[in-house]
Amino acid sequence: MEALTSFSDASLHEIRRDLHAHAEAGWKEFRTTALLAAELEELGYEVHLGANAVDPSERMGVPSDDEVAAARERALNEGTPAAYVERMDDITGAVAIKRFGDGPTIGVRTDIDALERQEAMDDDHRPAREGFASVHPGEMHACGHDAHATIGLGVARTFAQEGFDGTLKLFFQPAEEGGRGGKPMSESGHLDDLDHLLAVHVGLDEPIGTVVSSYDAPLANAKVDVTFSGEPAHAGGEPNAGRNALQAAAAAIGNLYGIARHGDGRTRINVGRVSADNAQNVICEEATMRVEVRGSTHDLNEYMLGRAREVIDGAATMHDVDYGTELYGKTTTFENDESVIERVEAAAEATDAVDEVIRTEFGGSEDASYLIRRVQESGGTATYLGIGASNPSGHHTAYFDIDETAIDIGVDVITEAIRRLNPSSSVD
Amino acid sequence: MEALTSFSDASLHEIRRDLHAHAEAGWKEFRTTALLAAELEELGYEVHLGANAVDPSERMGVPSDDEVAAARERALNEGTPAAYVERMDDITGAVAIKRFGDGPTIGVRTDIDALERQEAMDDDHRPAREGFASVHPGEMHACGHDAHATIGLGVARTFAQEGFDGTLKLFFQPAEEGGRGGKPMSESGHLDDLDHLLAVHVGLDEPIGTVVSSYDAPLANAKVDVTFSGEPAHAGGEPNAGRNALQAAAAAIGNLYGIARHGDGRTRINVGRVSADNAQNVICEEATMRVEVRGSTHDLNEYMLGRAREVIDGAATMHDVDYGTELYGKTTTFENDESVIERVEAAAEATDAVDEVIRTEFGGSEDASYLIRRVQESGGTATYLGIGASNPSGHHTAYFDIDETAIDIGVDVITEAIRRLNPSSSVD
Amino acid sequence: MEALTSFSDASLHEIRRDLHAHAEAGWKEFRTTALLAAELEELGYEVHLGANAVDPSERMGVPSDDEVAAARERALNEGTPAAYVERMDDITGAVAIKRFGDGPTIGVRTDIDALERQEAMDDDHRPAREGFASVHPGEMHACGHDAHATIGLGVARTFAQEGFDGTLKLFFQPAEEGGRGGKPMSESGHLDDLDHLLAVHVGLDEPIGTVVSSYDAPLANAKVDVTFSGEPAHAGGEPNAGRNALQAAAAAIGNLYGIARHGDGRTRINVGRVSADNAQNVICEEATMRVEVRGSTHDLNEYMLGRAREVIDGAATMHDVDYGTELYGKTTTFENDESVIERVEAAAEATDAVDEVIRTEFGGSEDASYLIRRVQESGGTATYLGIGASNPSGHHTAYFDIDETAIDIGVDVITEAIRRLNPSSSVD
Amino acid sequence: MEALTSFSDASLHEIRRDLHAHAEAGWKEFRTTALLAAELEELGYEVHLGANAVDPSERMGVPSDDEVAAARERALNEGTPAAYVERMDDITGAVAIKRFGDGPTIGVRTDIDALERQEAMDDDHRPAREGFASVHPGEMHACGHDAHATIGLGVARTFAQEGFDGTLKLFFQPAEEGGRGGKPMSESGHLDDLDHLLAVHVGLDEPIGTVVSSYDAPLANAKVDVTFSGEPAHAGGEPNAGRNALQAAAAAIGNLYGIARHGDGRTRINVGRVSADNAQNVICEEATMRVEVRGSTHDLNEYMLGRAREVIDGAATMHDVDYGTELYGKTTTFENDESVIERVEAAAEATDAVDEVIRTEFGGSEDASYLIRRVQESGGTATYLGIGASNPSGHHTAYFDIDETAIDIGVDVITEAIRRLNPSSSVD
Lengths: 428, 428, 428, 428
What we know:
Chains A, B, C, D: This is Aminobenzoyl-glutamate utilization protein A. The structure is a homotetramer. Chain A is α/β, with parallel strands linked by helices and about 425 residues long. Chain A is about 35% helix and about 20% strand. Chain A has two domains: about 300 residues, Zn peptidases (Aminopeptidase); about 110 residues, Alpha-Beta Plaits (2-Layer Sandwich). Chains in contact: A-B, A-C, A-D, B-C, B-D, C-D. At the C-D interface, helix 8, strand 8 and strand 9 of C face helix 8, strand 8 and strand 9 of D. Strand 8 of chain A pairs antiparallel with strand 8 of chain B.
């Protein structure tokens, strides 16, 4: 499908498909950010980009400079407006603000990044069949963030037209996958004066017509990249001369899974990726791995993270190798506020296309947690809500897709909830 | 450098540089085999190719069909004579035979494959500086097999011109790296009637002018590819639903290195490569590794291989995963025969360019071992000889190169040794 | 303190101290069983002993024949009535039954075994100070079962005197520690016709005056003894000749702790004891370990047990050793019945010495679970209740003791609850 | 058998049987040392005991004070002369010196300790059958040191009677098993002026009549005791609160065996003993293990020891536990001197009962290495010689015994060799 160069004349469904077709993974969302920013400014919003939208020093899991540069060039080659790319200064994500009246300041958080995975390209998959599958090999909107960004824009359009008695702040958060962008956006300063925050997710394996007014209690999560560095040696001639990074990694893996369960609640540990690559006759001088820990509370997650660091440190000592760790991403826990949940429920019940309103819990993790906590710590309230989308295949799979009606429902429920969060509202 | 399409008018030094520039890794030596075969037939040798040169059922570590096909197409695109490629039937390597007289049947074994590694491309490296570095990314003659093949051809040319009282058999062995081609060539049937065999290696960190009349006692070696196959699962939601291939691999690695040392002599174990690749939040469903064992005798190598298989089997059981193993390559041990060594020494001493003759031992492994053993088991005698080449950098490194005079010395010493192995020779 | 040879003229407090002083660990309770049986028969109860009290084929974690014989001889030497010891036929534990009227059949389960640990012998510990610390080195009533048995006898005395409209069954269960005696007693057949069952525990770190009407939701538990058997060898001369049982044990331990957490709830794994004993220069031919798994449901416990067996099997395969496993003990989960809980609460509130009635959950495991489940499966109801005893030191520690008033409260609450469980009771 | 209280009137064979019957393990040889010392002083030798015989600060693997005291009391109870025990000041071992003439100073080293193992007590074992099996449970002369000490005394008796032109020094070394006493005796100062040293071993699986003139090239060896110390915790309630010493030990064991083999020669690693002892439901707070490393050179042994320390350190870090290590024993390598070997060979050939003289190599380790090296470093020469004894069962086994003729052969060969080491000797 032909890439849009502006969203001005496009419908929300067209925009969602355009974003789907040009999926950009975390910290590579140049085109997505720029096109959203251009449209938002056109709608009258004040748009903050780059270091004005996320705190650069808090960014985690940022790809190499070369990868970021390649993503930027790709976006420009696809017709992305260069002025916006320039303003971003290689930092994706946007915050859009507009004061419509004296009432409360209300935020809407939508994430915008794609996953690093290949989309299915056969006719069983509607995006492929109808020509809007991702043209970027190895990048795919397999978690619905294309719809999220579109919903955020839909809310912007609605209020640009209708107004409301308050200030609207739209957070288009980058790099949610892996929990890399939530913390830096939460430190941007833009959250601190919010009275209320709504975050939204589509899909959740719920049917279209179902709204989740409170989707909470995720596991806190941390992801750490580890590199063990030793010395190579000929495995036949003088194996002793090596410092075996792979032995260290194997010892670490074996013992990471063995970190003691915790009496206070759920904990998790996983090593998702390991790589060491030499000929068979060379003692491995480098081994990398990607580790993830979780806990049902912040403290349990910190317990796992602390113990994991000890295991990694000990494994390196054991095999006389050096190591480095880098935090790839991190999320925390949150609980939604009853008062906001109830407004969402009222809004959902008032929406024609909604036939069921439920509350559920997260199985996984979310870095909206940092934004929600920031708002709550500053005295505001929040909920994370879900919009059923009859997704035909699970999140993160190659065949993930949504019923696009979910976008309309999302915009309607959120705009209605925002109106109802206004104390001067007559529709409580 | 422009690829030759025939070796007829080329000098040995030119041929070596042409082979160096078009390095082909194991089981991909289509161009090398074809050009050598064409020239050998032109010289009057009977050339056996494909299944007539190596026993297909004994081949180890053969790349995938796609990789082999790509190598074949590359060779054709570089102007390799198609008729020879066709005769090979996707099996590289060649045996060339010519009967010159009634005397003994004498073999010369040279290997022809390159390594899977990138060649240095800067001016510190003569092949790069003088324009004959490998044009095949990731493939490089870093072990001197380009010189070996050239020496074999040089011997063929010398006797085609001068003749001698006996039969000459030239073995251009594929896939020596990893020990994959020696066994299948040893089973070709062409070794069984040899009276004597000479195998040759250049370099060995010896200076030009030094000849090693006996280079023996290598470690026996076996390389095994292992794949553990489990089930993926979400590491946060239901880690129990996974069958963790990476945990199995880590347990295997930890315990492979712990296989008991042996009272009878040297043993070795190494895992050179491991790969498992998932997102951090997915229990690994597949992990692969490349294992190598060695022993200073065949039995010690078998002890290590047998114990390694037990460890791998147990690791899979532990973590309830399936596994498969494939023998990637294998070598055995050998000892050279004193009678042949002495003829080589006499020949070397009779060669002007030679100023020192020594005997040394292997640090590593060699699949010429299978050819040498085959000859010895059939009643013949053999030696593995070395030609110093003042190599500026170690074998298998990106800067490996040779003093090309070694090619001339190699041809001279081997042809002279062959003459002296003839009992009717007057030059003993 | 001088050992009693009959309980006839002793007060409950004297009996508790006598039992405390002659602590007998699991399956060694010869004296305890015999003295209780003699007294119960004197009170008019029909007493079942040996195979009539527990199903011998279901017994777990039974000490060796030599150890059992030594315990039997010790009991006889301490003046235990030989006739009762003979009737036991080396199987400890007793069931006492008396029909007082036509009303319901109600059971009381108390356990009678001591722990295998040394009691504190200094004056900070009242049993030592006042002369009733255990005279059996390495055996101690550190979990209050001396009080439990006494409470059971107290209930028997009360009803022998007062009667009630129903049948009373008293279960004096052996070998609760480790979860070894509950299953075999539950299979005795005596549980199947119970209308209600009350099980009791003292202490629980609650103050005297507190009664726990429902103490439930324990973790299911299984304990397994493992022996790895290999071959010894001289570690210097021919380490290869060994089959290293210790390496197998170490691999097992490392990987047991690494069994994946379960998405459905709490799981636990521990290795409490390991032993391998050779000179430093001998490859270990035998290693033993004691493993424990738990789960918050029966299925989770079975998941852990099944996975633990796979890990052990794989570890043995890895190191080419044999192994055997033996189930040392096992418990399951249970939930108390609301109707019985409420009767206990009413009874407790009616007891002067009780000032607080609460409900709590188990942190650990209990093999009363099998008796409770058996009753519930047969259509009866049950609760596991607790009697606060202001224990000065935690359960299983060397300084564990109780406020003996808890015995009186226990008898009072249980007898009152039994009366209230009688539908013809006027005190509901 | 009745214990001797003096060796004065006893034959060598009687003395050997008396020592055999009262086997004393390393650093417990109170009776052995005292009776030898008394007899040596009676023969006119100057006897050094306690800190005058071994350097106390260099002692390794010394039992606890309680164990040493118990051994001392046992010796006294067996009638050992108290004056000698007092002079020893709890340090076993003796050096006896006598100057007979102006010639060279020649040393004879014999070790005196027993093994910590139970002797066979059935009639298949001659010491049991004939009534001189060890009366000390768990201690046995299973390596022939009873014969060694006797040979040393025999040499003393011979020269006391016959004299020779030189000075004789007899080293009765304690605690050879485990390599604990050689180093401290080598630092006593008594070795430094030796011209020649003869050390002797009986058995070696050689038949009676065979003498080994040079028994050398042992593996260097180090033994280390390791204790991991963590924190206990209830494995069900709060496993996280523990610091698991057993997990640390298991990780250490797994990785100790995986220390890389060395290109320069033989290395060895073993863990002979592990102990952790808790109930199944307690996270282990303490685990101990006994580790041994070896190398065919001093440097290789140090390589193993250094790497083992890193593995242990890393294992402790991994599981957040503390640890301590203590060197239990240590030996080094040595080579015998040709000149001394030849004198021994001449002496053996001159001995009637000798029918074969050979040279062999050690499979194991010996702490005579320190004495031999000390002599060689001071300019002297040495050999370690062996006396075949037709031992019916291997060294260190419960059925080890010797043909006692070996004692006579030992005395004869050594005294004759000493005479021949005298340059003024006429019997060269």
